[in-house]
Amino acid sequence: xxxxxxxxxxxxxxxxxxxxxxxxxxxxxxxxxxxxxxxxxxxxxxxxxxxxxxxxxxxxxxxxxxxxxxxxxxxxxxxxxxxxxxxxxxxxxxxxxxxxxxxxxxxxxxxxxxxxxxxxxxxxxxxxxxxxxxxxxxxxxxxxxxxxxxxxxxxxxxxxxxxxxxxxxxxxxxxxxxxxxxxxxxxxxx
Length: 190
What we know:
Layout: E1 13-15, H1 26-36, E2 43-45, E3 53-54, H2 57-69, H3 77-86, E4 90-92, H4 103-109, E5 115-119, E6 130-139, E7 145-151, E8 155-160, E9 169-170, E10 179-180, E11 182-187
């Protein structure tokens, strides 16, 4: 697979020439993206795309959903959240006091292809404060729930779904009162 990168070019540009199978499943496509080893925010020319796209969390989710579900999602995690909500397919979690349910609660409700939304993974400049999105893949052979997407730490990859884990966060005073990023909703494609 050809790889072209220039040290002065940030993010890196990946040129990918391997064609996608026409009826590729969500799992196949997610593992294909993982195999490319794309860092977070890499600019990638992916098969079937007219031009390169920046592989952050929302563009990774957008690519997976477009290629496997045929749904053209908006660009940002916040806009994707609003899109799903507008179509009546959004389910908020947490109840009256905003706690995050455990893994069992999520896995009873989720289906492969559902979008997972986090708030406050960084300081948002928009409403709603949705700042991160991933795509639920289902459970692996050992029963671990998995999701596909992109994170700063490991780039485009397959991750374990850990609903109560804090992702990012912002604010605080001397390390106190920090607003932690948390999983708050899921959405099903129409």
